[in-house]
Write a structure and sequence with these properties.
This is Alpha/beta hydrolase. There is one protein chain. By secondary structure, the chain is α/β, with parallel strands linked by helices. The protein has one domain (2-345): Rossmann fold. The chain has helices at 2-34, 93-99, 128-141, 154-165, 184-187, 193-198, 200-205, 208-216, 218-229, 237-244, 252-263, 274-281, 305-308, 329-332, 334-345; strands at residues 55-59, 62-69, 76-80, 103-107, 116-117, 147-151, 170-176, 290-295, 316-321. Strands 1, 2, 3, 4, 5, 6, 7, 8 and 9 form a nine-stranded mixed β-sheet that branches. The longest helix is centred in the N-terminal third of the chain and has 33 residues, at 2-34.
């Protein structure tokens, strides 16, 4: 009886905190609307907001560079970026969450920005389990037991993995494009031709010509990916230049190429992640409270919401974000993304 009351009290306290945060977020949205910004965060809105000076911490294999905003006493929110993007995807999400009382942490993934490997001997491995372990190491280094974890693209996959295999570390989940956990065995099965066409760059990266081409023409390549993945996002040259600086990381090409080759079984992973990958190949369900998001103009390969809804066994909601929103949803629709984080905290 006593434990039931305690659990219920914690639930009610959490819901009250989320409601308070939602109220604050609503006030922020209202103020931005009055200033002429689009409250939906559509393709033409969202002026850049600086995330401030980077911090750095050694965690596992990496020296991780990260941005942090919001009160140190706030509930932790971990925001994970995708490829080929960077932490700037959250330049407008993070301040909104900070104003709502959250402690917001945004690390550069391995091979991106100022994050560096601690040893030259560490494989420049991009497999899914390695990036998930990096994230847990980051949380451990900061002594964060549980966090709301949110992401898109590589970041969503990483968040999904932690929520599935380490649910005790994930207070709640926001995942763009839903359930993205994969396996080499599943990836070995051919898709219909139109679906394969969407993955053209994966096959390009499978060749040494593709590796050299990506290394030589990184920015042209990335601009093409951005335009295909978000065909209605009218990003300007300054926005593009700011984010692509993160791709000058000396390990970016190696980590990127390994990620896509590993998916197709063309590159070996590390044996220390074999048990992780064995569990992920079984497609574990995600038991934590979750909101999945999808933009109505996502031009990147992505599953249909109906195909993955059953993989979320806790309280669950899917939201379609309209207005020409593409693959980089937190940057294209920051208020919708921030609202999802606040709302899932109240589940």
């Amino acid at each position: 009886m006593g434990e039931t009351i305690d659990v219920e009290r914690r639930r009610l306290v959490g819901a009250a905190a989320a409601a308070f945060a939602a109220t604050r977020l609503g006030l922020i949205e209202s103020a931005r609307a009055q200033s002429g910004q689009s409250p939906s965060g559509g393709p033409a809105d969202a002026p850049h907001t600086a995330l401030g000076a980077l911090k750095r911490i050694d965690a596992g294999d990496l020296s991780i560079a990260y941005a942090e905003v919001g009160p140190a006493s706030g509930a932790p929110v971990l925001l994970l970026h995708g490829w080929p993007y960077d932490i700037d995807s959250y330049a407008d999400v993070a301040p909104a969450l900070a104003e709502a009382g959250y402690r917001v942490l945004i690390p550069y993934l391995r091979g991106h920005g100022a994050t560096r490997f601690l040893s030259p001997a560490t494989p420049r491995n991009g497999q899914q389990a390695a990036i998930a372990v990096d994230t847990l190491d980051f949380m451990d280094a900061l002594k964060i037991e549980r966090a709301i974890i949110a992401g898109y693209d590589w970041g969503a996959r990483t968040a999904d993995i932690i929520a599935a295999l380490r649910p005790e570390r994930c207070r709640a989940l926001v995942s763009v494009s839903g359930y993205l956990i994969g396996s080499q065995e599943r990836n070995a099965k051919p898709l219909p031709p139109r679906a394969e066409l969407q993955w053209w760059y994966q096959f390009y990266f499978a060749t040494e010509r593709g590796r050299e081409g990506y290394a030589r023409h990184t920015r042209d390549f990335v601009r093409l990916i951005w335009e295909q993945a978000s065909p209605r996002w009218r990003f300007d040259d300054a926005t593009f230049a700011r984010s692509t600086r993160a791709l000058d990381n000396p390990d970016h090409v190696s980590v990127t190429i390994h990620n896509y080759r590993w998916r197709l079984g063309l590159a070996q992973g590390e044996t220390r992640y074999d048990e992780w990958e064995r569990k992920l190949a079984a497609l574990p369900v995600i038991p934590v409270p979750t909101i999945t998001l999808e933009g109505d103009a996502n031009g990147a390969p992505h599953p249909e919401p109906a195909d993955y809804a059953r993989m979320f066994t806790g309280r669950y909601e899917h939201r379609l974000i309209t207005g020409g929103i593409g693959h980089n949803l937190p940057q294209e629709a920051p208020q919708a993304f921030a609202k999802a984080v606040v709302d899932v905290d109240g589940f």
